[in-house]
């Protein structure tokens, strides 16, 4: 089983997915019509179908992506030391968002 995960980790490192995600030009991405038109159409379609769970999931994904790029996140690790007083709000915020998403997808009935 460990060999299976080692192969997945090696493949992920060989494709440089983390670096590609970290180097995304947000302004360029959201001004590129090849991304923006399908994204807007998908959101409009979700609104038309009243797929509120999907819209909330898209909003949560965009919010986490935006928060991960703030200067606050750059100060979480200073000199290979994790700053506990700064990580706790991130931890509780993530737990709150995860709890909300679990409630939306599994706790409610439509």
Q: Helix and strand layout, with pairings?
A:
Elements: H1 2-15, H2 17-22, H3 26-31, H4 33-48, H5 52-68, H6 71-74, E1 77-78, E2 81-82, H7 84-107
Antiparallel strand pairs: 1-2
Account of the 3D structure:
By secondary structure, the chain is mainly alpha-helical. Helices cover 79% and strands 4% of the residues. Strand 1 and strand 2 form a beta hairpin. The longest helix has 24 residues. The chain is extended and about 50 Å long. The mean pLDDT is 87.
Q: What's the Cα radius of gyration?
A: 18 Å
Total number of strands: 2
State the strand order across the main sheet: 1-2
Major beta-sheet overview: 2 strands, antiparallel
Task: Give average pLDDT, whole number.
Answer: 87
- What fraction strand? under 5%
Helicity range: over 70%
> Shape from CA axes?
extended
Structural class comes to: mainly alpha
What is the terminal separation in angstroms? 39 Å
Q: Treating each run of at least 4 consecutive H or I residues as one helix, how many helices? A: 7
Order of helices and strands: HHHHHHEEH
Unreliable residue stretches: none
In short:
The protein is mainly α and 110 residues long. 79% of the residues lie in helices and 4% in strands.
Question: Tags for this entry?
Answer:
single chain, 110 residues, 2 strands, 79% helix
């Amino acid at each position: 089983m460990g060999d299976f995960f080692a192969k997945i980790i090696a493949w992920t490192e060989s494709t440089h997915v983390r670096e590609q995600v970290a180097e995304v030009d947000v302004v360029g991405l959201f001004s590129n019509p090849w991304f923006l038109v399908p994204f807007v159409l998908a959101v409009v379609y979700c609104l038309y179908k009243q797929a509120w769970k999907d819209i909330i999931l898209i909003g949560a994904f965009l919010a986490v992506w935006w928060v991960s790029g703030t200067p606050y996140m750059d100060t979480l690790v200073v000199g290979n030391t994790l700053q506990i007083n700064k990580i706790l709000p991130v931890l509780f915020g993530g737990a709150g968002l995860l709890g909300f998403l679990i409630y939306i997808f599994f706790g409610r009935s439509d």
